[in-house]
Design brief:
α5 crosses α6. The chain has a nine-stranded mixed β-sheet with strand order 2-1-17-16-14-3-12-13-15. β5 and β6 form a beta hairpin. It is globular and about 65 Å long. It is an alpha/beta fold. It has two domains: about 240 residues, QueA-like (3-Layer(aba) Sandwich); about 80 residues, QueA-like (Thrombin, subunit H, Beta Barrel), CATH 2.40.10.
Length: about 350
């Protein structure tokens, strides 16, 4: 298929700039993926579509305050760093801009508690950066860093916690698993009270999730690599759900990619940790998930391709057309879609 097959026209005003309050008051478009039938609901209606035989799998990754604004030592030059991957206790791979001010050997200060030196410039333009600090790096980062909001969100959030899920637990993401932002503790408790089992996986979302597809032939696109982990407790929940004929419902494309990756790499659902670069697009045969809860994604993105693989290209593009007509709110802070 071609990249252009996944294009849709989105008015700028439908890109959500602020989250819904309360979290579970977002709108919810529900799709029957067999028929394409759509229903317009509110996110707190999700339990109505679940049964006691089902399980809900969520991504418990936590977003790092990974954006740092520093001053190059000996100058007044301002440089922005975006942490991508921790290599050692004090060394990270990072983006830096403007790049000409972050050459190898350059040193930077980020307030009084954190300094850094660029050790190497990689072929892809990323930097290897060593940080100097006292105490715990993540505690210092929490003081001086900022959450790396997507480029299409043009204002800072008043409450930084709104770009974290209420169950965020494992630090490591450069972006939030946004389908989970709609859940409240109370809503999760309602789901559990129905007998639905809730399990957690971890996939640390990389900035590659926002990387555009540049090839017209989508099969020529190369995915970024992300770390994932599925614990035995969650694997057991999924196995028992399958055994009793229940549905495994993934919250977000990150959960979907995690579950499908472990099945592809091991041949079954089991406790496993690895890196994945799985690219799911139409024609993919799903091995694990039976339902998907997700936000509305960018045109021509790998994420809308994943959704199309799950519920069909025609169903997907029709649902997005309806969502635009009905003025749903799009992207990370926007509304949600439940596909069953």
């Amino acid at each position: 298929m071609k990249k252009s097959d996944f294009y849709y026209d989105l008015p700028q005003e439908l890109i959500a700039q602020t989250p819904a309050t309360p979290r579970d008051s977002s709108r919810l478009l529900v799709m029957d993926r067999q028929t394409g039938r759509l229903e317009h609901k509110i996110f707190h209606d999700v339990p109505d579509y679940l049964t006691a035989d089902d399980c809900l799998i969520l991504n418990d990754t936590k977003v790092l305050p990974a954006r740092l604004y520093g001053i190059r030592e000996g100058t007044l030059a301002k440089v922005e760093f975006l942490l991508l991957k921790q290599l050692t206790a004090d060394t990270w791979e990072a983006l830096a801009g403007p790049g000409k001010k972050a050459r190898s050997g350059a040193r930077f200060s980020f307030g009084d508690k954190l300094t850094a030196e660029v050790l190497e410039v990689l072929d892809n333009g990323n930097r290897i950066v060593r940080f100097f600090f006292e105490g715990n790096f993540f505690s210092v980062l929490d003081e001086v860093g900022q959450l790396p909001l997507p480029h299409y969100i043009t204002r800072e959030l008043e409450d930084k916690d709104r770009y974290q899920t209420v169950y965020a637990n494992v630090l490591g993401s450069a972006a939030a698993p946004t389908a989970g932002l709609h859940f409240t503790p109370e809503l999760l408790e309602r789901i559990r009270q129905k007998g639905v089992r809730v399990g957690f996986v971890t996939l640390h979302v990389g900035l590659g999730t926002f990387r555009p597809v540049k090839t017209e032939d989508i099969e020529a696109h190369h995915m970024h690599t992300e770390f994932y982990s599925i614990p035995e407790e969650t694997a057991e929940i999924i196995r028992e759900t399958k055994a009793c004929g229940g549905r495994v419902i993934a919250v977000g494309t990150t959960c979907c990619r995690t579950l499908e990756s472990v099945c592809r790499q091991t041949g079954s659902v089991c406790a496993h940790s690895d890196n994945t670069d799985i690219f799911i697009y139409p024609g993919y045969e799903f091995q694990c998930i039976d339902g998907l809860l997700t936000n509305f994604h960018l045109p021509e993105s790998t994420l809308i391709m994943l959704v199309s693989a799950f519920c069909g290209h025609e169903n997907t593009m029709h649902a997005y057309k309806v969502a635009v007509e009905e003025k749903y709110r799009f992207f990370s802070l926007g509304d949600a879609m439940l596909i069953l």
